[in-house]
Fold this sequence. Notes:
four-stranded antiparallel β-sheet; six-stranded mixed β-sheet; Rossmann fold; 10 strands; globular
Amino acid sequence: MSAFFEVSGVEGGYGGGRVLNSVSFGIERGEVLAMIGRNGVGKTTLMRALIGLVPLSAGSIALDGVELGHAKPYVRAQQGIGYVPQGREIFGMLTVAENLQVGAQANRAQAAEMKAKVVEYFPILKARYRQKAGTMSGGEQQQLAIARALISAPKVLLLDEPSEGIQPSIVTLIGDTIQRIAREARIGVLLVEQDMGMVERIASRCCVMDKGRIVDTPSPAQLGDEQLIRQYLAL
């Protein structure tokens, strides 16, 4: 039986070169799946392939029974794939409200309802509503980036290094909120993350990538094993 979000035998890369080597995994509603591994093993390329920014040379991507492996990025967004890229990529010259309005374009019908939900998840955004996004702290910008993806009511949310460049207390807040969103909104979450504390705390399951393929599936509890983590991340 297929998972709610099913990735099967995905291959792809840049300029004819192959980075991803037959990557397969599934995510259910309400589940947080962490994808870990050292830098350069293909994690960000995988995220970009899932959202449609890197073309597939083989494999399939299905969400709620709908095949999206060769769909345009905007179609994937409309079908329910939300994406928060590494580095956030918020629109710094736009206000918080305007950034959220941009995110709402993929699903205007639910935008008003979701706007109320995202400011409940991230109340700092309500206080910053008319502020230019570029003047906010890194942690506030990350909360905005996640809210911008959530406002389109996605079925699955792809998060690429949400802890990057953020102070530890805000990392904890964001991690706890991601877990809450997955549980309450029944959204499947794919989390690419180097912060093993966050992964251990919020992930339901974990996959390890190396050389463009999934090489192991440790339990979150195993991520407390420092020797094992050194092996996975080649520290």
